[in-house]
Known about the structure:
The chain is of the alpha/beta class. It is built from 7 helices and 17 strands. It has 2 domains: about 1-80 and about 140-195 and about 285-340, 3-Layer(bba) Sandwich (FAD/NAD(P)-binding domain), CATH 3.50.50.60; about 90-135 and about 200-280, D-Amino Acid Oxidase, subunit A, domain 2 (D-Amino Acid Oxidase, Chain A, domain 2). Helices cover about 25% and strands about 25% of the residues. The strands form 3 sheets. Strands 1, 2, 7, 8, 9, 10, 16 and 17 form an 8-stranded mixed beta sheet that branches. A 7-stranded mixed beta sheet has the order 5-4-12-13-14-11-15. It has a two-stranded antiparallel ribbon with strand order 3-6. Helix 2 packs across helix 7. The longest helix is centred in the first third of the chain and has 19 residues, at about 60-80.
Amino acid sequence: MFDAVFVGGGVIGLASAWRAAERGLEVCVLERDRAGSGASRVAAGILAPDSEAEPGHEPFVPFARRSLELYPAFVDGLGVDVGFWQCGMLAVAVDADEVDQIRHEFRGLRWLTPSECRALEPGLAPSIRGGLFSEQEASIDPRRLVDALASRVDVREGVEVTAVARDSVTLAGGETIAAGRVVVCAGAWSGFAGLPVRPVKGQVVRLRGELPAQRMLRTEHMYIVPRQNGEVVVGATVEERGFDTTVTAGAVHELLREAYRVLPEIAELELVDVSAGLRPGSPDNGPLVGEWEDGLLVATGHYRNGILLAPITAETIAALLAGDEPPPEALPFAPQRLVTA
Ligand code: FAD
Ligand code: GLY
């Protein structure tokens, strides 16, 4: 019998299973499609605890910063190159309104003049009005990350789970698998287990060529993520459209137009791929990591930051499975906060 069965082979299920196995537990991941075929393979791979923080989510920053601190050892442990790059994030303003919006994010960073921004990134459009640079923020290639994680754990692909309990899962064919504990990591589809998680659609464009920037760039409406292997990701829409993953001409137009406004050289790159994924959003858009009702363990609801939060989520779940104390930064994300009396 497995010590733990993980339902869902996205970055969260794979990372959590791997860290649990590293603690000596016997685990397996049940994935109804292919490992990483959900949001994880669409994600841009931004690891930005401060830039991604939204007002009103104060516990997010220490949780996310701790996860970023864990990242170097996490990727070293995988033993293959997954594109981890501490390149920093430059938030830029293209007009006067955006200057106010971006200055509002201040976070103790020094406001950079247009020429200081261009000294960092010479390819920026002449119209840039200034910006903020978060030097410690990083990126990773989520596709290489999930492939590396999947090679480190026992993943059963093409296996759909239809019902879960504290210590067993039922498969689509009717078979039941008993386990010490069950962990639901089914991303935007976690509702099948009674969890309050909704899909939030995001579309991204993948380009390739000579890198037009050496840092991540963003405005209020768009981001650009360069990778050292020549891939450049432009994202992303945020759409409440249920389980719809249609790629639309309008989204591609808006993303590329905004990217071109910031970094005109983007127009020279090869257009490789456009994809849409479903972010798992909880009612307060914070992750659900820990014990849900009836002893079920859950790790879902990571919304826009599941790649960033994978290491700390995995540490939390592995600690709970091993009977150890979870990291203190994880306590505000215990799912019980959403259980109504
Ligand atoms: P998923 O990756 O969706 O995996 C869930 C898995 O569960 C799927 O493979 C699915 O097939 C499987 N599954 C579902 N139901 C069942 C079942 N009943 N039985 C068996 N298997 C099942 N995050 C960042 O940190 N940085 C970013 O830059 C970033 N950019 C993003 C850009 C876009 C456009 C999108 C859409 C998301 C982005 N995210 C980013 C968010 C990130 O992708 C998600 O938070 C993260 O991938 C969630 O991982 P997950 O493992 O919970 O879900
Ligand atoms: N964190 C980037 C996104 O969700 O689009």
